[in-house]
Amino acid sequence: MTDVLDRTDDRTAPQKDARTRLKIIDCDIHPSLRSVDDLNAFLPKRWQEHLKTFGSHIRNPFTSTTPYPRSSPLLSRRDSWPPTGGRPGSDLAFMQKQHLDPFDVEFGILQVLDLGVLSQVNLEFGAALQHAINEWQYEFFARPDPRLKPSILVGQDDPVAAVAEIERCAALGRHVQINIAPRANEPLGRRKYWPIYAAAEAAGLPIGMHTGGYGGHAPTSSGWPSFYNEEHHSNAHSMAAMLSSIVIEGVPERFPKLKFVVIEGGFGWVPAITWRMDQHFERFRSEVPHLKRKPSDYVRESFWFSTQPSEEPDNAKHLRSVLEWIGIDRLLFASDYPHWDFDDPRFAFKTPLTEAERKQLFNSNARAVYKFD
Amino acid sequence: MTRHVAAKTSDIPPGGNKVVTVGGREIVIFHVNGEFFALLNRCPHEGAPLSHAACVAHLSSSEPGEFKRSRIGELLRCPWHGWEFDMRTGQSYFDPVHTKARSYPVIITPGGELAEGPYVAETFPVTVDESYVLVDV
Amino acid sequence: MQIDCDVHPGLEGTRTTLLPYLDDHWKEQVVSRAIDGLDLQSYPPSMPLCCRPDWRPKKGKPGSDFEQFKAQALDGFGSQIAICNVLYGAQAVHDPYMALGFCRAINDWIAAEWLSRDPRFRASIVIPLQAPDLAIEEIERLANDHRFVSILVLAQGEDLLGRRQYWPIYKVAERHNLPLAIHAGSQYRMAPSSIGWPSYRYEYYLAESQAFQSQLLSLILEGVFGKFPKLKVVLMESGVSWLPAFMWRANKTWKGVRVEVPWVERPPADIMRDHVRLTTQPFDSPPDRAGVEQLIEQIGSDKMLLFSTDYPHWQFDGEEPVPPHIPASIAKRMCADNPLETFPRLQTTA
Question: Considering only CB atoms, which chain C residues are within 8 Å of A240?
């Protein structure tokens, strides 16, 4: 699997030890709509019209781009534009050729970000779009390539509609998780979202929270930063706040069987926020009598973290310590294909891993969380 | 190191590049500002193909808000993570000493001279009226 | 020598403690309109974090009993110097003139009733960020009093601290050798994080550590340390253990999107090691000695940590304010060398 690459530093030397070809479970792949017309089969006429006229409406000053321009066009690797045309991620054949086949992807979990689908301010429209995209994922990607697994996208800020869509999709049995946006109107631990957690627990599906959302709050607690660099980094902060919210509000206490997967947040920030929650627990304990256990216990039992963007300390030993602090059993490999900050499974972890650890990180952890056989 | 005939200069338009396999390695040859540069077609970070890099200006600044541009098109932004490499030397912008793309010396040679050898020719015949990009690999 | 870089004298109120220090206009406003009760929402005096039980005065707000404060914070911990950071809400009012009036009163009060009563006390200048030019006026007014060793802002404000409108403040601060002290606390202008308004104060407190990170990133990427190379920033009560992962991510992102900020000429982590300091309470420690040692190694500098008790906030029990397992060489530097280097005005006599 590993080529001998010409390198001037030997930070990736440990990778050369990998001998077995390991089948990977990639927990974050982004398919993209070739055209909004591809949704027509799944979208009532009324909403087809709405999409063409009033269009996607999210809390963003622009209709067709983000106010923080990305590092590269459409946030994507420059080599991921399909030669037959269309956006990165829109051509299944090219995705197979460029990513799924060469990396021996056994399963790839789909995360759709198109159209700000979870953050539409018109909640009814959002629900219609989510329904359509939940069908589109299956018809255009998962059915033709059963390695790919769709997620149930639900607009978290309309819990009633969300629950209905969860129940509809769960009955179909094709989707492997329920996706909600971490940047919602309120922190995701708040009570208004609990019906979603109840439905997820009843359906036996994990909740996936992929970086993103336009919930109506600035990326920082002091407002809007100037640079994409800052906004990109703020996603890690959002995840830390979201983790705190879910734990402190008592969601894992109330729904102990529910699994939470934090996707595309990286993981370097996880130990410190966990230590911080524990450090201050005693002083705040009387405010949160519903918590019967230490916060770190809830994190250890209910949360998993996809690995991308992987952390890159200069010293491999430092990365190793973070993996151990979190627990290698909590980490799920993700590539983020086809985005620019994609992690190549061959080179993303510049620290020695035993064969058993590689297997966990690249396959068996996700296998257990998503119940693949 | 062996000198290989890698491409015809006319194969690579200004601002463009061509990927060739030379000496068992995938090499990307860029043509910019009247010169040709050859690099291993792999970013030293995670192996991205530098042939898809954005070719941009060398960008420096001494003051917030100042954007000093020079050597337009000679800096590569890796197509994946955006790391900047100097096409001329392969050195990364942020860590020129330790982080480099592998760079190969390039010589432009008229076809007439090549007929005398000892160069390793690749997959096309050499003709006298063309110029060729030769790479030491 | 031991310098406590973060303690909190308490004041009863605007109509009480601050009244003598207000000018005639603000006196009249405060009395006739009953303007009072500016305890920060971030630190309600009755909340457990705000005062360790054995430090709570018999009457009055936490930290308001001068004699008790001296006995416990200074004598009790054996500190020769303590830097007073007043967390009373002058910074958070909207009216910039009122903010200035109240900041002046706080600064004059601390000088008269704390700094002048015991030579071991120093203080940060509380400034009204609402109007940078007024903030500069206040800094200049007190610049010659070297018992003021830093300028104080809250971690969560109206705009990110790196932004251009604040640069004139940093220019003045740099000239007067006053580091910028960012202390935990919020002006409550917007949600404490990008995900909205939490339910529990516990979550608000947890979110402070992300707030510090946003501010640091702003200061670094906007080029503040390039423009003001002598400026230092002190993060107070930030929790420390988030620092290495933040450095790694900041470096990683900078390498990829450097084109946005070409004036940032070296990795953000290197800039932090030169310009940024953190007080050590709370530390949010890894659970064991090996973890703490690993974390310290990851920070990669013995100059960044500054001893603090955060008195009277309740961050630790017992008599040892140095967080557990801090290596001896670090503990030694953080008690005196680092504070003396960070706050140059500590070296000049009052």
Answer: 209-210
